Amino acid sequence: MKPEKNKLLSPAAKYLSKVDPILGAAIEQIELEENRKPNKNHLRSLVESIVSQQLSVKAADTIFARFVELFVAKGDIKTARSFPTPAQLLNMSDAKLRSAGLSGGKVKYIKDLARKVEAKELQLHRLQKMSDEEVVEHLVQVKGIGRWTGEMFLMFSLARPDIFSHGDLGLRNAIIKLYKFKTIPTEKQIQKIVAKWSPHRTLASRYLWKSLNNE
User: Fold this and answer.
1) What gap in Å lies between CA 208 and CA 178, rounded to an integer?
2) Alpha carbon distance 12, 137 (integer Å)
3) Which residues contact residue 177 at a Cβ distance below 8 angstroms, ignoring those fewer than 6 apart?
4) CB 211, CB 2: distance < 8 Å
5) What is the pLDDT of residue 6?
6) Of 87, 110, 116, 86, the residue nearest 97 (C-alpha)
7) For residue 199, is the peptide bond before it cis, meaning its omega torsion is within 30 degrees of 0?
8) How many Å apart are CA 165 and CA 71, to the nearest integer?
9) pLDDT reported for residue 136
10) What are all long-range contacts of 207-210, with beta carbons under 8 Å and residues at least 24 apart?
11) How far apart are CA 85 and CA 43, in angstroms?
12) Is 20 labeled as catalytic in the residue annotation?
């Protein structure tokens, strides 16, 4: 982290610094682009989340790029900035998808997602109008999508401002480091810290990840 003098903070960051001086001290030292644009292609975002599970950022990015390139090479989409439709995902053979570096399990998860979108069991266009909890409940019907993925989707695809994921190891490690816990904190202890950050828990989470150079 690089200390900054006279750093200009957003109103949300100022609020976090006021209610939590420990987090505030970290915020003062972290460079963070707060105004991130949400990913509006919900299908792409969910597929990318599935691909990224249990992988480093670098490995996940490499595999996802290969995955998209399969559909460019086949002529389904024109460029890597485009994304295949649910029907195109379902039509790609499992063997081809695995050739991009996907595990057999992740291939099944992606196809289950595509199948549910195609059948209108999963209605991605309605997610923006749902409450946070309704979004998570709607998404976890897909195999391979759990609460953590739903919470990441709320943060980065729907840009919901007040989300914290208790299941995220990075956030937990950042809190242990920042608040100098000598033993692993309980969820109750973490909740006591996190509660004061509302209604800006998403931004607080992003600062925590950045404190680990892991955003």
Assistant:
1) 9
2) 28
3) 211, 212
4) no
5) 47
6) 110
7) yes
8) 33
9) 97
10) 207/13, 207/16, 207/23, 207/26, 207/27, 207/30, 207/32, 208/23, 208/170, 208/171, 208/174, 208/175, 208/178, 209/170, 209/171, 209/174, 210/30, 210/31, 210/32
11) 8
12) no
Length in residues, the chain:
215
pLDDT score of 44: 95
pLDDT along the chain (215 residues), means of 10: 62 96 95 82 94 88 96 94 96 97 97 97 94 97 94 94 94 95 94 97 96 73
Q: Residue 214 has what pLDDT? A: 54
Nearest to 49 by CA among 115, 109, 137, 116: 109
DSSP labels, 85-126: -HHHHHHS-HHHHHHTT--HHHHHHHHHHHHHHHTTSS-GGG
pLDDT at 40: 83
Residue position matching structure tokens 């460079």: 31
The long-range contacts involving 133-140, CB below 8 angstroms and separated by at least 24 positions, are 139/46
Please give the DSSP secondary-structure letter assigned to residue 140: T
What is the DSSP secondary-structure string of 155-188? HHTS--SS---TT-HHHHHHHHHHTT-SSPPPHH
Q: Is the pTM of this model over 0.85?
A: yes
Distance (Å, whole) CA 27 – CA 76: 44
The rounded distance, in Å, linking the Cα atoms of 45 and 47 is 6
